[in-house]
Amino acid sequence: EIMLSKMNPDVEAIARAVQSMDAAALDAESVAGMIRFLPTADECVLVNAYEGDERALGKAERYFRALTAVPGFESKLRALEFKQGFASAIGAVRDWTECVDR
Fold first, then answer.
1. pLDDT number for residue 62
2. How is residue 55 annotated by DSSP?
3. What integer is the mean pLDDT of 36-47?
4. I want to staple 25 with a disulfide (CB 3.0 to 4.6 A). Which of 1, 17, 18, 87 is the partner?
5. FH2 domain: which residues (predicted)?
6. Torsion sign over Cα 64, 72, 76, 21
7. Which residue in 24, 25, 1 sits closest to 12, CA to CA?
8. In this structure, are residues 11 and 59 in contact, taking their beta carbons and an 8 Å threshold?
9. Which DSSP letter does residue 53 get?
């Protein structure tokens, strides 16, 4: 829940941002944290099997439930991480090629 406290408090908004791969709503640090704390297969099954009042769930469980409703959520997060890191990677390659050219 520590990672979630640094993000948008609305887990549904986070899920929508993942669905649309919205880099403006999910900065690189948030995406990296989300990938580090992806729900396990067992956690996905447990939160999705819960049939009680969703308000009784903790923030982490509500987050997992919203995230797992996004088709391909892990792939989307990893693609977003790649996209966000691409510009800095290109800059590093340019620096290396300039060194080689000298």
1. 92
2. G
3. 93
4. 17
5. 1-102
6. negative
7. 25
8. yes
9. -
Average pLDDT over residues 95-102: 82
The whole-number pLDDT of residue 9 equals: 72
Q: Which two tokens stand for residue 9?
A: 């408090």
Mean pLDDT of the 78-85 span: 92
Q: Using the predicted structure, report yes or no on whether residue 20 has a pLDDT greater than 80.
A: yes
CA distances from 35 to 75, 87, 98 (A): 10, 20, 33
Q: What is the DSSP letter of 39?
A: P
pTM here is 0.78
How far does Cα 77 stand from its chain's mean position?
5
Distance between CA atoms of 78 and 100, rounded to whole angstroms?
31
Tokens 């649309």: give the residue: 20
Q: For residue 24, with 0-12 CB atoms within 10 Å meaning exposed, 13-18 middle and 19 or more buried, which class applies? A: exposed
Give me the sign of the Cα torsion angle 93, 95, 99, 102: positive
∠ Cα 13 24 27 (to 5°)? 90
